[in-house]
Amino acid sequence: MLRKLDVYIIKKFLGTYFGAITLIILIAVVFDFSEKIDDFLENNAPFQSVITDYYLNFIPYFAVLFAPLFTFIAVIFFTSRMAYNTEVIAILSSGVSFQRLLRPYFLAATIIMTFNLLMGNYVIPKANQKRFLFEENYYYKTPHGFKDRNVHRQIEPGIYIYLESYNTNNDYGRRFSIEKFENGELVSKLLSQEIRWDSTKNKWQIRNYYIRDYIDGKQVITTGTVLDTAINLDPQIFKMRDNVVEAMTINKLNDFIENQKMQGSGIVNSLLVEKHRRFSFPFSTYILTIIGVSVSSRKVRGGIGMHIGIGLLISFSYILFLQFSAQYAISGALPAWVAVWLPNLVYSFVAYFLYRLAPK
After folding, report:
1. Closest Cα to residue 215, out of 190, 237, 187?
2. Residues of 37-74 as b/e, b for ≥16 C-beta within 10 angstroms?
């Protein structure tokens, strides 16, 4: 059962956390609006859409993005005040152990972690869909262009395509080929000078093609000018922006990862990093909470400002470590789950070390 001490700490924890989020979000919205107002006016963005479609979806995204940092700041701030009001000394002197003192902190951290976990995997992606659609209509002046060259992908088991280049403005690809394999052997290959997407038929139109089929050890060659085909290749895949995965729920993200693995895409590592980050980042709430309590529960020269300075240094070093290790995963030097969870493992030892030094 919760005691008065538990209720007292949980209220302070959650109140400070949501108060810090509200303050930072208000500042972020003001700066974002001042930066983008010219583009909104130039593109005739309706004021109602700016509020409902953009900022109402921007606010939860921003809140969850920096949730562990807000958690850490909240713990540092209100625990430091308790320490300098001698509340921590009174609690420990009354027979409450430091381990018991951490219990309400963990309960509040669990509430925050669960909230951010559900928001990040199910609510935020749907909000991002509306926000990205608004940005496409009223913010970005040019459509996203596909910059990769010499694209090799598997679109179905045993079927591979090649594109030298692709133009997203007119859905046009140069030097296109399809290879079909059965039991590890090439059975058909199509070569063409160009391929276009026909939006009226929802099919690809292959022009100036040359097909070589291998039947019973013999080659059968077919040529033609125009060929309509419904290959498993969505033209929208070439128009996706880098942040499109932020608009996918965890279920859609898993399906997209499997699809990209089948196609041999080069973005699989970055997708896996995004997937594991959605779980490791909320989990860091526990680690940063322990560090925050251990650091701020003792009086030091410099007061609350010193505690906040130390806390910000540790939290920013954690975020920097996470970004640094994620780059190793994207480059393939480390498995994605190792790179994303490694900062949590390292800072767990930091949390344990500071816990041992905390006043008992």
Report:
1. 187
2. eeebeeeebeeebbeebbbebbbbbbbbbbbbbbbbbb
Which tokens is 52 given?
């409902």
pLDDT 10s digits, 79-123: 888 888 888 888 888 888 888 889 999 999 999 999 999 999 999
For residues 195 and 206, give the distance between their C-alpha atoms in angstroms, rounded to a whole number: 5
The CA distance from 203 to 24, in Å, is 48
Assess contact for 339 and 320: CB atoms under 8 A. no
Q: 246: which DSSP letter?
A: G
Strands 185-198 and 159-167: unpaired
- The identity of residue 359, as a single letter, is P
**pLDDT tens profile 124-156:** 999 988 888 888 788 876 555 566 677 777 777
Q: Which pair of tokens denotes residue 286?
A: 């526990």
